[in-house]
Amino acid sequence: MDIQIYQIGFGTPEYDEAVGLRYEVLRKPLGLDYSPEQLASEYDQVHLAAYGNSGALLAYLNLTPAGTETVKMRQVAVATALQGKGIGTLLVAESERLAQRLQFEGMTLHARETAVPFYERLGYVREGERFEEVGIPHFKMKKALV
Ligand SMILES: CC(C)(COP(=O)(O)OP(=O)(O)OC[C@H]1O[C@@H](n2cnc3c(N)ncnc32)[C@H](O)[C@@H]1OP(=O)(O)O)[C@@H](O)C(=O)NCCC(=O)NCCS
């Protein structure tokens, strides 16, 4: 599958479509939704989306500076029917290249416990104790961008 990864703008139709994907993959299974305040706080974040040949949205993640040296990766979601095909790996790799171009030295994230093996394959390491977020167990993970 040919995959194109683009930075999309907050508040655009592409962003709205990505929020729909995020809802289906990350929130609906937990019986949760995004509040207007949560989405409004994303106005200054970097939004990356992966598209297939036909222009279909495949996956999404966003990046937020966490201090001057580190970026936080959030909301990593691959369309349910397309998981396990390497799309998440491509999107995370592209986000790391972008963060490096922006001179950041490290990536951090809160991984759902179920996704920890996915991030470990990509070189992320767990940091600290398991904690709860959106009602499910998570670990903080990090990776040096060198
Ligand atoms: C987790 C997620 C982003 C991974 O993206 P993906 O496109 O499905 O993953 P990839 O196909 O690139 O996987 C790369 C490797 O990680 C493994 N992997 C992916 N998800 C995994 C999981 N939940 N548990 C264990 N291994 C996993 C794959 O088997 C693959 O290994 P392989 O190369 O030996 O086959 C995606 O499955 C997803 O959106 N899941 C639901 C939402 C979620 O949990 N998001 C992360 C929130 S922190």
CATH H-level homologous superfamily name:
Gcn5-related N-acetyltransferase (GNAT)
Q: Kindly identify the CATH topology.
A: Aminopeptidase
Secondary-structure arrangement, i.e. CATH architecture: 3-Layer(aba) Sandwich
Number of strands: 7
- Which ligands appear in the coordinates? coenzyme A
Supply the CATH class.
Alpha Beta
Radius of gyration: 15 Å
Give the helices and strands, then pairings.
Elements: E1 4-8, H1 13-27, H2 36-40, E2 46-51, E3 57-65, E4 70-78, H3 87-101, E5 106-112, H4 116-121, E6 125-133, E7 136-144
Parallel strand pairs: 4-5
Antiparallel strand pairs: 1-2, 2-3, 3-4, 5-7, 6-7
Q: How would you explain this protein's 3D organization?
A:
The protein is α+β, with helices and mostly antiparallel strands and 146 residues long. It is built from four helices and seven strands; from the N terminus they run βααβββαβαββ. The chain has a single domain, classed as Gcn5-related N-acetyltransferase (GNAT) (Aminopeptidase, 3-Layer(aba) Sandwich), CATH 3.40.630.30. It has helices at residues 13-27, 36-40, 87-101, 116-121, and strands at 4-8, 46-51, 57-65, 70-78, 106-112, 125-133, 136-144. It has a seven-stranded mixed β-sheet, sandwiched between helices.
